[in-house]
Amino acid sequence: MTEVQSSAQAAGEERLRVLVVDDDAVDRMAVRRALRGTGLAVDVSEAEDGDGALARLLGVAGAVDCVLLDFQLPGATGLDVLQALRAGGSDVPVVMLTGQSDPETAVALIKAGAADFIPKASLSADRLARVLTSAVRVQRAERARQSAEAETRRALLAAEAAQHQAEDARARAEEANKAKSEFLAMMSHELRTPLNAIGGYVQLMQLGVPEPVPHAHLDYLDRLKRSQQHLLGLINSVLNYAKLEAGRVEFAVRPVPVNELAAAVEAMVTPLAATKELAYEWHPPDAPLVALADPEKAAQVLLNLLSNAVKFTPPGGRVTLAASAVDGGERIALHVRDTGVGIPAEKLETVFDPFVQLDTGYARQQEGTGLGLAISRDLARGMGGELAATSEVGHGATFTLTLRAAERAADDDASLDADRRHDERRAGDDDRRSHEDRRGHLDADPTSEYLAG
Length: 453
Description:
The protein has 453 residues and is of the alpha/beta class. It has helices at residues 3-11, 25-37, 50-59, 78-87, 103-112, 125-206, 215-245, 258-275, 295-311, 345-348, 372-382, 406-409, 413-425, 435-444; strands at residues 16-21, 42-47, 66-70, 72-73, 76-77, 94-98, 116-119, 254-257, 279-283, 290-293, 318-326, 331-338, 386-391, 397-405.
C-alpha cells in the first residue's frame, strides 16, 4: 500500500459513499477500479445521466459523501449538473472527471463550486485518493465552521434575550423600590404624627395638665410613654434605612477632631453604662487626630455601637472607646470594645445585614427591627468610611469605625472640594428635625434612631 493510501485509510475509518456519474460504462468501470486501489473504504453507486444524479442527490440530504461527475453527459454538461446542485442547496463535494484540461474549463468548474477536477487521461488510484480525501475533509470542515457560526449566533441571541430580561427585571425592581420609598415617605407622616401626639398628651398628663393625675396612674403613664417611644423608634429605624437605601440622606462632611466626637457621645453613654454597673473608658490617641466626617452622623454611629456594647455586656464588665491612625495616617480608626457575650464566627458575616437579629449578637435591638448596625454601616460608607467587626464568643467584640484623615486630605483642596460638592448633591430629607429635637429623642432612647432627619 502506498503512502497516500495509508494516510487515506487512516483518515477515513468510516465508509465513504461515492456516486459515480458517467454515461460510459467503460469509464465507470475504470473509476471503480481506481477507487478500489485507493485503499479507502468506499461504497460506490452509479448514475448514467444528470437527471438521475440530481434525483439521487437532491432527494435525500446526506445520501452521498462525494460525487465523481463526468463533464460530458447526454443532454447536459457536468457543469450544468453542478450548478443545479448548488442552486438546490446541496453542498456535497463534486470532483469533475473531464477529458479536457484547458485552464478556462478548470476555472469555470471551480467557480461553479467543484471541489477539484481530474483529467480522465491521468486518473490514478493515488491521485483519486488525494482528491477524494481532501474534498471530503474540506466539506466537513466547512460544515463544522457553519455549525459553529450558527451556534455562536444562537448564543448571541440567547445572551441578548437574557440581557433584555435582566434589564426588564432591573426596571421592575427599581419601580418597586421607588414605590416602596414613596409608600414609606407617606407612612412617615401617617404613623409619626399620631405617635408624637400620643407622646405629647402623655407628657402633659404627667405634668398635671389640665389637672393632676392620681399618683397610682403615673406608673401607667410612664409605661405608655416608654411604649410610645419604642414604637416610634422602630418606625424611625425602618424609615431611616429606606432613606439611606434611596440615597436621600444629606452628609455634611468636614474636618472633625476625634476628641470632640468622643466627648459628644460620652455624656449619653456614661449614664447607660452606670445603670448596668459597667465601666466606660475613653482612650484618646497619643496625638490629636482630625477625621473627615459628618459630626452628627459619626456621633450617631458611635452612640449605636456603644449602646449595643452596653446592652450585651454583663454587669461588672467594661466598654471602651479608643482611636488610632491607620494606613500610614491616611485613615482614622475608632474602636468600640466590650467584654460582653460576643458573636459566633458563623454569624459575624451577617451582623450588618438589614433585619438580622442574632440571639447573642449586636444586630438585635431589644425586640427591634435589626436595622441598627445596617444603618450604622451605611452612614459610615456615606462619609467615605467603613464599619467592621471582630469577635470571639465569651470574650466580647470590637467594632471599628474607619474614617478618612482630614489632615492628609486637606493637602489636596481640589479633592476636598469635590467631596463636599458630592455631599451637597445628595438630596436632603424633607422631614428634617432640629438638632435639639434629635438630641432630646436620643436622650430618651439613644438606640431608637440613627439618622438626623
